[in-house]
């Protein structure tokens, strides 16, 4: 076992990445808890969901003060993500699923990391595609935009509840495609973080009901992450976004393949 302060250092590092990019809460912390700290899969996901909700709350307050949260988009995402999260939690409570839960979570986690890695690498291409569609077919694009946002929310709700991954990295990629003109880079991060909080809270409450939260571990993680996310939010415009996201994508791909194998 590592000393408790090591988990705080890990939380600090993840908090910085979350504040700077909106990426990294579940995508980095859950694999760390599984592969480095040896936490059981269900406990790792449940603890990370509450960790992400509390950590991102600090970033959301900062973004809201600066006016970088689009609450209309947040509401559309939540219309899909919250019901999907509740349905996924109910399925996890069934006897058939519970017997294979750890294997299911680890497999889904690996797949989610690989998908998130590709999405992060090709974020720019998806943004360009969305921009072209938005400019060339504005009426049609705007007509389906709300429905597609709800569908995107439902996909995120399922993935986040099962793995704690997706609300940040994959959510940001979806939004770059769906709102290529409306969301500036700062608003993209702020909106993505604001949506992740209620989703993580609902999913985390479900894992709490299953007794899968390690509150001692959560406390040490938060001790490092809260100052980390504040620092990351402040310096988010300083570090080259493309370089940082490429590095994150490579790490996620490696860890995802490791979990799948």
Write structural notes for this entry.
By secondary structure, the protein is mainly α. The protein has one domain (4-260). It has twelve helices and no strands. Helix 3 (41-65) packs parallel to helix 11 (215-234). The longest helix has 26 residues, at 138-163. The radius of gyration is 17 Å and the shape is globular. It starts with a helix and ends with a helix. The mean pLDDT is 82.
Walk me through the topology.
Layout: H1 4-21, H2 25-36, H3 41-65, H4 71-92, H5 95-98, H6 101-121, H7 123-136, H8 138-163, H9 169-178, H10 185-209, H11 215-234, H12 241-260
Helix pairs in contact: 1-2, 1-11, 2-3, 3-10, 3-11, 4-8, 4-10, 6-12, 7-8, 7-9, 8-9
Shape: globular
Question: How many individual helices?
Answer: 12
What class, by secondary structure content?
Answer: mainly alpha
Average pLDDT metric: 82
Estimate the strand proportion. Answer: under 5%
The percent range for helix content is over 70%
Order of H and E elements: HHHHHHHHHHHH
